[in-house]
């Protein structure tokens, strides 16, 4: 049974940082791409970043490039999203995804 479980969301002030985690189980990772998406109220879900499990190569949306870092821990089967210099427009529910599988999401709110 495949499971993706996000955690680490919360309320943070503009300029602050959060680290999201996506704990996975039931997936053979070697050839997968793990991705983070987000969905703000009233908006479509949008791509944030992805990482290739085997090589660790990464790709980012322009809106987060230079502020967010995606990484993975092979031993823990976990993918992370380090978010720095957060802005109010980063407020959204953040989801991890691989193939047809999605997590339940974790809320990130950036507000003073």
List keywords for this structure.
four-stranded antiparallel sheet, globular, mainly beta, 0% helix, seven-stranded mixed sheet, 112 residues
Describe the 3D structure.
With 112 residues, the protein is mainly beta. The protein is built from no helices and 11 strands. The protein has strands spanning 3-7, 10-12, 18-25, 33-39, 46-52, 58-60, 68-73, 78-83, 92-98, 101-102, 106-110. Strands 2, 4, 5, 6, 9, 10 and 11 form a 7-stranded mixed beta sheet that branches. A hairpin with a 2-residue loop joins strand 9 (92-98) and strand 10 (101-102). 31% of the residues are buried. The mean pLDDT is 94.
Quick rundown:
The protein is an all-beta fold and 112 residues long. The strands form 2 sheets. Strands 2, 4, 5, 6, 9, 10 and 11 form a 7-stranded mixed β-sheet that branches. A 4-stranded antiparallel β-sheet has the order 1-3-8-7, with no helix packed on it. The protein contains no helices and 11 strands.
């Amino acid at each position: 049974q495949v499971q993706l479980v996000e955690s680490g969301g919360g309320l943070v002030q503009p300029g602050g940082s959060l680290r999201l985690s996506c704990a996975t189980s039931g997936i053979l990772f070697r050839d997968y791409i793990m991705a983070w998406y987000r969905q703000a109220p009233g908006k479509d879900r949008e791509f944030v970043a992805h990482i290739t499990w085997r090589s660790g190569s990464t790709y980012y949306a322009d809106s987060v490039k230079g502020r967010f870092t995606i990484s993975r821990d092979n031993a823990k089967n976990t993918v992370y999203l380090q978010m720095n210099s957060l802005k109010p427009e980063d407020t959204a529910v953040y989801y991890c995804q691989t193939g047809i599988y999605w997590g339940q999401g974790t809320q990130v709110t950036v507000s003073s």
